[in-house]
Structures are given as structure tokens and as C-alpha cells.
Specification:
CATH architecture of the domain at 35-119 in chain A: Orthogonal Bundle
Oligomer: homodimer
CATH superfamily of the domain at 35-119 in chain A: Winged helix-like DNA-binding domain superfamily/Winged helix DNA-binding domain
Largest sheet of chain A: 3 strands, antiparallel
Strand order of the largest sheet of chain A: 1-3-2
CATH topology of the domain at 35-119 in chain A: Arc Repressor Mutant, subunit A
Structural class of chain A: mainly alpha
Largest interface: A-B, 35 and 35 residues
Radius of gyration of chain A: 15 Å
Strand content of chain A: 5-15%
Chain lengths: 123, 123
Amino acid sequence: MIVNGTKRSTTRSPAGGRGANELCCPPLTDAPMSAQESDELASILTALADPVRLRLLSIVAAEGETCSCNLEGPLGKSQPTISHHTRLLAEAGLIRGERRGKWTWWTLVPERLALVRRQLGGA
Amino acid sequence: MIVNGTKRSTTRSPAGGRGANELCCPPLTDAPMSAQESDELASILTALADPVRLRLLSIVAAEGETCSCNLEGPLGKSQPTISHHTRLLAEAGLIRGERRGKWTWWTLVPERLALVRRQLGGA
DNA sequence: CCATTAGATTGATGATTGTCAATCTATATT
DNA sequence: AATATAGATTGACAATCATCAATCTAATGG
């Protein structure tokens, strides 16, 4: 079922040639990153580098599963703006959306956050 | 000694009211973030969310200590551009610069990266 | 079938950002 | 003092981004 960030052109997984929970690359503190590695990580970090999206993400994580209508209020943003942010987060593979009836239910993709932590020099 | 990112107007530490290695906040996956928390984290993530800066950071981490002149070549960017990026990373508290003679020596601030990892849902 | 509701899409606008040429500052060397 | 070198600063420009009003799509309820 097609929803939000899932309308990407290619058939690639969330974003970048790997599954969200695959190992990928060593921490950036271990060895100089390649241009490709840095491009991929930067694209995920760009999705995270916004106050509204960080709070959105934390709400989704806290609620376990949330529809967009539960986000507009707490975040104080318009419906199109929320839709925009959920789309960016989904394209980055950080959340997943599932359409059920009128609502889209968003859930966290914890492995994706774990990948970021690891590449950021995770222990 | 005044160098690069250190020219900020206030007397605050690296960026945000805390020292780089202080505890601050629980992971974003534990509870909804406040607007202030998300602003602070987003500002660090914004500094990280660029391919050139990620590679710059990984080179500094690998070398242990590097002058700007060792960055222009590997990163393929002009001198002002490198200076711009080191400044942003320093303002975010992710690297520290020390002027010695003609050179500025950059070092990683690992606690700052650790803080980001923890807030990103670190174990 | 019509009205309502959730949310995605489009288009426009103001703000931010990455980049570099040109310039400036400070240090080192002769 | 004159020259050279490392790097910071300024100014400009194109590209990207966050935001929202307006519109469109799809599903629900009468």
C-alpha cells in the first residue's frame, strides 16, 4: 500500500541501498568516510536536523503508533506541514506509515536510529 | 585564545547551556521532547547533516589532530569553504580549534558526539 | 448520492545554506 | 621591512528548506 514517503521513484529500501537494520559502515570515528557513506548518512541526519521532526519522532516513539491527526495539535503546525515532515522522516526510513481506513498510522523504525547512532561513533 | 567558532556573542559553552559532556536529557525515544530540547539537538544535528562536514569530522577523528591545510585537499573544497565548515562544527561543540603559530589545530570533542548518540535513543 | 473527514499534493514565499572570489589578519622567514 | 603563508571574514549567488493556503484524493457515515 502506497503511503507518504513510499512514492519514491526507485525500488530501493527506505533510503540507500540497504535495509534499515543492516550493518553498513563502521563509525565515522574509526576511519575517514567515503563520499558515498557521508552522502547517505547526511541525508538521514538532514531528516533529523529539525526541531519539529525531532519532536514528531519522539511523540511517535512515545505513543507507539500515532495518526497524523494526533500530531498537529502538540506540534502546533498546519496539516500540510505535518504531512511534509512525516514524508521526509519516512523517506529517510526513520518512521513507517500504514494507511488504515481514513487514518495513516505512523510507527518508529528503531533500527534506523540505531544505524545513525552506530555511524556517529557508537561504542 | 580566540579561534574560529569561539567568536560567539554570549559566554555559553560550545552550544547550549551545558558543558559538552554533561548529561542533559533522556533519549528522544523515552519521552516527548520539549521545544527547547529539540531546538538544541536540532542545532547540533544541523552541523552534522552535511557530507563535507561528516568527512571533515572523520578525518579529524582519524588524524587525532589536523590543521585546516590538511583538509582542503582530501575534501576538494576551497579554503574559505573549509574555514566555514570548521567554524560551524566548532560552534556546535563537535570540534575544538587551537591556534599554534600559523596553523589552527583541530581536534574532535568525543563527548559531544556521545551526547548526540544518547539523545538519539542510545542504549 | 451527498457531506464529512484524514491526509496527500501543489504552488508560492521568505529564510537558510553551501560555495567561492576577494580581502583582511596574523605569524613566520629572509 | 618585505615577502610568504595559514586561515578568518565579507559579499554575492544559486540551491534548498519550512511553512501555509488552496486543492485534490480516498474513505466513512448518513
